[in-house]
Amino acid sequence: MRGLAGVLAIDQPDPLVREVVAVPARGVERWLTQRLSYHLGSTEAAGICANVDFPSPGQLVADCVAAAGGAEPDDDPWAPLRLVWTLLDMVDGEFPAPRGDRRFLVARHLGRFFTSYGEQRPTMLTD
């Protein structure tokens, strides 16, 4: 913890540039933010953890690959918001229509599973 706090405490040339720390889950983000607030600042109890982004490792990799390729991250066909529409076409074509407007909810739910599997268990998708 103190090592990360030490890295984040180094003054940057541009104070508006955000720091990036990849975390596996939102709970870890909250915990890190709270712990870092004790180590950053002028006194031990008065620190603030601000101007830090906490993307998931999968999101960080997707953003880096998109930036390196000169593309927008949202152009990725496996991006969660784009994947919903592909899955919606599959749900409409293969399964009986769910009652009401649940088709979109079903596709979004399936999209979250595929995104999660792609980040945490990529071999499961390729198999």
Topology:
Blueprint: H1 2-9, E1 19-20, H2 26-39, E2 52-53, H3 57-69, H4 80-94, H5 102-120, H6 122-126
Parallel strand pairs: 1-2
Mean pLDDT: 79
From the N-terminal CA to the C-terminal CA, the straight-line distance is 38 Å
Poorly predicted runs are none
Radius of gyration: 20 Å
* Number of DSSP strand runs: 2
What coarse outline follows from CA principal-axis ratios? Answer: elongated
User: What count of helical segments does DSSP give?
Assistant: 6
What's the helix-strand series?
A: HEHEHHHH
Structural class: mainly alpha
Largest sheet properties: 2 strands, parallel
Q: Portion of residues in helices? A: 55-70%
Per DSSP, what share of the residues sits in E-state strands of 2 or more residues? Answer: under 5%
Major sheet strand order = 1-2
